[in-house]
């Protein structure tokens, strides 16, 4: 008997119980004796009954609020695509009465994260997506979520000790290791490589970026220990004139540098400088298919981009909350995104919004 034609009345007759008893079992309500529950469950198995979870969720007619806690950011950045993804999935599931609240905290500002965490808790959400800040304050936030039985997903940095419902992001160490291996296909004869960073009080932007650097340096130490890696800091919030001076001074001092690496989405800061100063013998490798990076790839100043599907990550986080909270389904706890290499010849074929 096809599931869609199985009525509660049919199940009740098969089990020898009342329709009300079947309804209580199907909806996991109390006041069902063990014997009656066993009869219903046996009948369900014999009839191969599969509940229509989508129809049930729609009929339940409950409102759901998901919160997304992410860093404040500029336009044309990795976080822009995350936002697009979470909004797109929320719109797709709007028939299930899902709403989304995006909350922004200042990176490297513990008080800002704590204030946003409080605002999130005050909203009493049904599920949360959170980009971790410092471990101790993130742990304090997630423990409060756990105490309230609010499922949360970690994005960007995987911290399994916090016991998230799921994680989405790249294996950042492997990503950095891969970046070094790809760069060395064209830079193995170099003496020096520039590593562009954007530091705040001596700290990189995220644990993910730090792990990428660790993976990169690990590969270089094992395979090309003779190549020097020279750090260059382009300060957060700097002007184009400031960046130009730092980069001009660097390249004058290091005329033998032909390759650069950065682990954030701002490779275009160097790429655009190279184009403006007509330095065609220098190339940079970076992350994220944001528009300015893509244009530098087309123009040839960025040789490689590693894509991490930010849009798909945002989309998948909301979809996972939907599956777990609304449909009561099990979800995959660890979801590593693909490590994809984009170059001039294939960048036009990269579909950052592809979630199918």
UniProtKB/TrEMBL annotation:
Gene3D superfamilies: 3.40.50.2300, lambda repressor-like DNA-binding domains. It holds the Pfam family LacI. The keyword rRNA-binding does not apply. Keywords: DNA-binding, Transcription, Transcription regulation. Residues 6-60 form the HTH lacI-type domain. One of its GO terms (molecular function) is DNA-binding transcription factor activity. This is Transcriptional regulator, LacI family. It comes from Prevotella communis. The lineage of its organism: Bacteria, Pseudomonadati, Bacteroidota, Bacteroidia, Bacteroidales.
